[in-house]
């Protein structure tokens, strides 16, 4: 099977894939990023700190971003939503006092929220797993109030061809090996490599956000261009 064929796009299959790796997801994140992923998530939290209103952390997984959003402002309503119940169950122990407004199983392109009700939406490492990206962006624009912000933290292909070749090797060979040894599921982490390759670079996401109707769309690169923070506002 080729790398591209391992890029899972069916929503139900993506959810099952993340259910399988939920128990080792946080450990694998720390290992794959060499401990940098929490700092990247902190940048995501800061990107929406000045947006008033309820916050939704979409593709919340085990809740790291949602809980960091809540710690940053205890008075704000923060909800985590994900298609994978397994991922959210794996993260519930991090919130023993139930400080979040809820952990909600939801389809990313049909959110159970009123139009114009959210001050901001964050998505960390989840957008590339949504097959209907333009539908997702339209749905998030619907859910945000005027002036509300979408902030996306994602893995991207670096601009440098030389760096890209090395990074591609890391994703193709090293990550699946780690996934087998530590996560117990090499195929799931081969999907990671395929999804990054298929997703492209930040400017492509910027363009689609602008076409969807977001304004002030901009991005910031981190980790030699392999991590990007892309954000835009609802007019």
Structural class label: alpha/beta
Describe the global form: globular
Low-confidence stretches: 1-6
Content of β-strand? 15-25%
Count of alpha and pi helical runs:
9
Q: What is the correct CATH architecture?
A: 3-Layer(aba) Sandwich
Largest sheet: 7 strands, mixed
Distance between the termini: 44 Å
- CATH topology label: Rossmann fold
**Portion of residues in helices?**
40-55%
SSE topology string: HHHEHEHEEHEHHHEE
**Average residue pLDDT:** 91
- The order of strands across the largest sheet is 3-2-1-4-5-7-6
Strand elements, count = 7
Number of domains: 1
CATH superfamily: Vaccinia Virus protein VP39
CATH class value: Alpha Beta
Structural features:
alpha/beta; Rossmann fold; 7-stranded mixed beta sheet; 20% strand; globular; disordered N terminus
Mind explaining what this structure looks like?
The chain is an alpha/beta fold and 235 residues long. It has one domain: 3-Layer(aba) Sandwich (Rossmann fold). Helices cover 45% and strands 20% of the residues. It has a seven-stranded mixed beta sheet with strand order 3-2-1-4-5-7-6, with helices on both faces. It has nine helices and seven strands. The model is unreliable at 1-6 (pLDDT under 50).
Brief account:
The protein has nine helices and seven strands, in the order H-H-H-E-H-E-H-E-E-H-E-H-H-H-E-E. The protein is an alpha/beta fold.
List the helices and strands and how they pair.
Layout: H1 11-21, H2 25-32, H3 37-47, E1 55-58, H4 64-72, E2 78-82, H5 85-91, E3 102-105, E4 118-124, H6 133-143, E5 144-155, H7 161-183, H8 186-199, H9 202-212, E6 215-222, E7 227-233
Parallel strand pairs: 1-2, 1-4, 2-3, 4-5
Antiparallel strand pairs: 5-7, 6-7
């Amino acid at each position: 099977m080729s790398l591209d064929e391992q890029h899972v796009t069916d929503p139900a299959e993506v959810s099952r894939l993340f259910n399988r790796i939920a128990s080792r997801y946080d450990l694998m994140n720390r290992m794959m990023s060499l401990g940098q992923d929490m700092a990247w998530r902190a940048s995501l939290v800061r990107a929406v700190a000045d947006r008033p209103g309820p916050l939704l952390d979409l593709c919340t997984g085990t809740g790291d971003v949602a809980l960091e959003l809540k710690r940053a402002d205890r008075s704000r309503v923060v909800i985590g939503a994900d298609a994978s119940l397994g991922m959210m169950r794996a993260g519930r122990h991090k919130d023993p006092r139930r400080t979040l407004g809820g952990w909600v199983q939801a389809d990313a392109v049909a959110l159970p929220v009123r139009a114009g009700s959210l001050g901001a939406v964050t998505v960390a490492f989840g957008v590339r797993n949504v097959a209907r990206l333009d539908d997702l962006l339209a749905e998030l624009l619907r859910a945000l109030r005027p002036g509300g912000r979408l902030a996306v933290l994602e893995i991207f292909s670096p601009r440098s061809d030389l760096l890209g070749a090395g990074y591609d090797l890391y994703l193709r060979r090293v990550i699946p090996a780690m996934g087998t040894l530590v996560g117990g599921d090499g195929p799931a982490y081969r999907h990671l490599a395929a999804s990054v390759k298929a997703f492209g670079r930040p400017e492509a996401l910027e363009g689609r956000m602008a076409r969807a109707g977001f304004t002030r769309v901009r991005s910031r690169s981190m980790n030699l261009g392999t991590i990007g923070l892309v954000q835009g506002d609802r007019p």
